[in-house]
């Protein structure tokens, strides 16, 4: 995959990793109902790179993203965004990190139905009392191809357009890192390709860091690397993935499961 544009400023400003986890554990429940979702995961996400996280159901991929994005607490271990140790911060500091340094794209779009596309895009900054950088905002809007839809409310937009609004919202504040949780899960193949193409461009042209959870080998093919989780562990990593290579690797998970091995 292409690397960062030499003329594009890097949005990640803190340390050598956009985000990282050290010996991360997440346990739900206790006793007979205890489930270990993450079992000592150590991983780093480099600035200006597009990483896909994949694995079978129950592998821990969504839990890993939620802990990295400060949406869920770790049971033990450390999570950093830049040099900020999320596991040592209080609620106010975590809220500020989520607002100012992390962008989110969810499967369900999460747009406010009473607001226009533009108002949804700028909403996080409006809540924070910050004015968007107009030049950057125009760049993001032009890149997602929504210049003629900014006055429309979500109900007047297609699913693909709504998700592009969500992508623009995630990038508008120039976060250190964008987390995308199954961003094409509710989209048809054409709309999904548009959204994935935009995320790819945000990495190539703007130096953005993107981490995406997906079950779709075609989506993973847009990434620079793929991390494969199984049973709460990172079990493999693939650089310069293609959809065909990813699909072959995912089939091996199915084979291991049928053989009664670790999945």
Radius of gyration: 18 Å
CATH topology: Rossmann fold
Count of helical regions: 8
Based on DSSP secondary structure assignment, what is the total number of beta strands? 10
The largest β sheet comes out as: 6 strands, mixed
Average pLDDT, rounded to a whole number, is 87
User: What string, H for helix and E for strand, traces the elements in order?
Assistant: EEEHEEHEHHHEHEHEEH
Choose one word for the global shape.
Answer: globular
User: Distance N terminus to C terminus?
Assistant: 28 Å
Walk across the major sheet and give the strand order: 6-7-8-3-9-10
CATH homologous superfamily assignment: P-loop containing nucleotide triphosphate hydrolases
CATH architecture: 3-Layer(aba) Sandwich
Oligomer: single chain
CATH class membership: Alpha Beta
Structural description of this entry:
By secondary structure, this protein is of the alpha/beta class. It has a single domain, classed as P-loop containing nucleotide triphosphate hydrolases (Rossmann fold), CATH 3.40.50. The protein has 8 helices and 10 strands. The strands form 2 sheets. It has a 6-stranded mixed sheet with strand order 6-7-8-3-9-10, sandwiched between helices. Strands 2-1-4-5 form a 4-stranded antiparallel sheet, with helices on one face. Strand 9 (225-230) and strand 10 form a beta hairpin. Helix 3 (117-128) runs parallel beside helix 5 and helix 4 runs antiparallel to helix 5 (159-172). The chain is globular, with a radius of gyration of 18 Å. The model is unreliable at 1-15 and 258-263 (pLDDT under 50).
């Amino acid at each position: 995959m292409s690397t960062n544009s030499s003329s594009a400023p890097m949005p990640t400003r803190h340390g050598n990793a956009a985000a990282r986890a050290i010996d991360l554990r997440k346990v739900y429940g206790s006793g007979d109902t205890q489930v270990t979702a993450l079992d000592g995961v150590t991983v780093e996400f480099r600035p200006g790179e597009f990483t896909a996280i994949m694995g079978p159901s129950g592998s821990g991929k969504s839990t890993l993203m939620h802990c990295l994005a400060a949406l869920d607490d770790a049971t033990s271990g450390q999570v950093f965004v830049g040099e900020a140790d999320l596991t040592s911060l209080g609620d106010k500091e975590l809220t500020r990190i989520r607002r100012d340094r992390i962008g989110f794209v969810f499967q369900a779009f999460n747009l406010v139905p009473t607001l226009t596309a533009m108002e949804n895009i700028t909403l996080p900054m409006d809540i924070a009392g910050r004015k968007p950088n107009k030049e950057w905002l125009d760049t993001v809007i032009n890149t997602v191809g929504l210049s003629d839809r900014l006055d429309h409310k979500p109900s007047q937009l297609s699913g693909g357009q709504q998700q592009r609004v969500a992508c623009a919202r995630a990038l508008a504040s120039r976060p250190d890192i964008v987390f995308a949780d199954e961003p094409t899960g509710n989209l048809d193949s054409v709309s999904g390709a548009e959204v994935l193409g935009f995320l790819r461009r945000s990495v190539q042209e703007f130096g953005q860091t993107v981490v995406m959870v997906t079950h779709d080998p075609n989506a993973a093919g847009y990434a620079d690397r793929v991390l494969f989780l199984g049973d709460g562990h990172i079990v493999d990593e693939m650089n310069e993935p293609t959809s065909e290579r990813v699909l072959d690797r995912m089939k091996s998970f199915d084979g291991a499961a049928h053989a009664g091995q670790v999945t």
